[in-house]
Sequence to fold (658 residues):
Amino acid sequence: MRCISVLGAVRLGMMCLLGLASAESAWAQLPPKVQMPTNTKARSLLEKAQQQTKERDFIKAVETLNQLNQKFPSFGEAFLLKGSLLKAMGDNRGALAAYRDGLSKVAPEPVHASEYQLLGDLALSYGDYQTALDAYRQLMKVAPKTQKNLAKSQRQLLTCEFALDAMKHPVGEAPLPLPAPLNSFKFQYFPALTADNRFLLFTGRPAASSGEDLYISRQNKDGSMGEPVPISPAINSSYNEGAGSISGDGKTLVFASCDRPKAIGNCDLYISRRTGNNWSPPINLGLNVNSTEWDSQPSLSADGRTLYFTSTRRGGQGQEDIYVTTLQPDGNWSPAQNVGTPVNTAGKDMAPFIHASGTTLYYVTDGLVGMGGLDVFRCEKQGASNWSEPRNLGYPLNTFENEASLFITSDNQKGFCSRSRASEEPPGGYRLSRERPVELFGFAVPPAVKARETSTYTQGRVFDANTKKPLKAEVKLYDLDTDVLTQFVTSDPEYGDYTVVLNEGHHYAMYAAADKYLLKSLSFDYSSQHPFSPTALDIYLEPVRAGRSVVLNNLFFDTNKYDLKPQSRTELNRLIEFLRQYRDVQIEVSGYTDNVGAPESNIQLSQRRAQAVVEYLSDHGISTTRLRSKGYGAGHPLAANDTEGHRQLNRRIELHIL
Fold:
């Protein structure tokens, strides 16, 4: 470690923490500009402290300097000398007080530049922003241009100004420790939840000597969290397993582990998938994702197909940068790409968290002005790969200490983070160990901190419509306004369960598909003031067999019109994919209306709408020999035509297998 010299290069050069040897040789004479005390008693006490330091009796030396301070309080140099001793002994609070007292009693001159710098750094490390600000401002007045770390101090001055203003305008309430049975370990951090908030994942170390393992706490019926348990013997091992992330449906886990056999770097990212209640053996994510350096702190998108993480690999913008990779159709992950500016800076950019909506990224960095150390920032996605300028989350989510990872639930209501307990440095002494317990905290998310889009979810199970047995199916979610695939999950092969995340303000088409089964089409319209809350929806898939049919829920027409609206292209393109997969299948596109209007007009309208679908399919390469259209008007209603909701159900297009 680098030792700190005080009162200039020729002043009292003191030892670093854990490096107290040779202190007696570092005691130097006061510089010529500073007059030695003329008082005989003061000089005697100063010489006594010098001798005690040479004898390595540092506690006695501090006691002697205390006497000197009490008897001759105007002699500021003695306070500064005491501050240097206390700093080297690890009593930073005592050193802070001594430097503050000493500098208030000496003339502001260049010879004191190092003390002003050190006072600012110490005060900032304890969140004493006003003292730090005053010290840095004084430093700027007296420091020579050659002063070491002057640019850093100028930046710290901006930090103090930002922090003092932020504390005058707090954003929300301070996080509070999560109640028992959580926080039962000495260290717990990196909280992450599934989209339905039923499972809380975190990294835990029961004791200071324990390695890192992953733990799961399950939500009780009353909403409280249950006793944490190790996630799985297939995951936790004799190696460290830490910094985990879980997909919205709780079926995909990515975590960091260090020094495993056949690892690529010193810490790599590994993936495991859950089937039923069992996790698969972890697999290294490979060279496309991991580097020969440190790769950790993963954050999965809601569908588990996009991964953000932190890496120290070469070619970045700072010591640590944030990278992103996506799961490809062939099952491989794309080569990881640096997220770039404005997210990554020349500083440390770490602990990314992508909200379930996929539109807002949170992370910690010391490369931007904040409250000091690592602060949490948020930025919003703009287009496919660009991000808005990061914005500091403010006080009290950010403090003078280094902040760790942040997690915000899909509904934007609750936030989670981890924090160290307050320092317990004994007054007048120093601590050999600085490992403070770390706990999980929770908070209500203030509006300014929320993700740009609020999310909810639909979940249920996929079954065979005939046997009622669970099915493994692909469940895909498309934004109808853009025809972009926004979610892609797979239902569990044992239980058939699935979870899909939806964002407020969007109109979605959802499709469930399994081999040799008809495509199931569902619609979720949250583009207007529809109720936006979780839904339970079981899906029953019909086999691809003659006589079976399915409603196409995402074909849209204006009232009494038969021209397909642009939002229909998502459904039509999925239908084309289905027909290309099953090339021997012949279909009838059947049109239906409600009973409003003349029967002849309804027959004609339903026929033209069905024909419009057939024409789109044939225009896109599907042979007309496989296609037939027929309008049934108000015939075969699905519900009574007694309400607008029921009539809407009856206005439909169906796909029949011939």
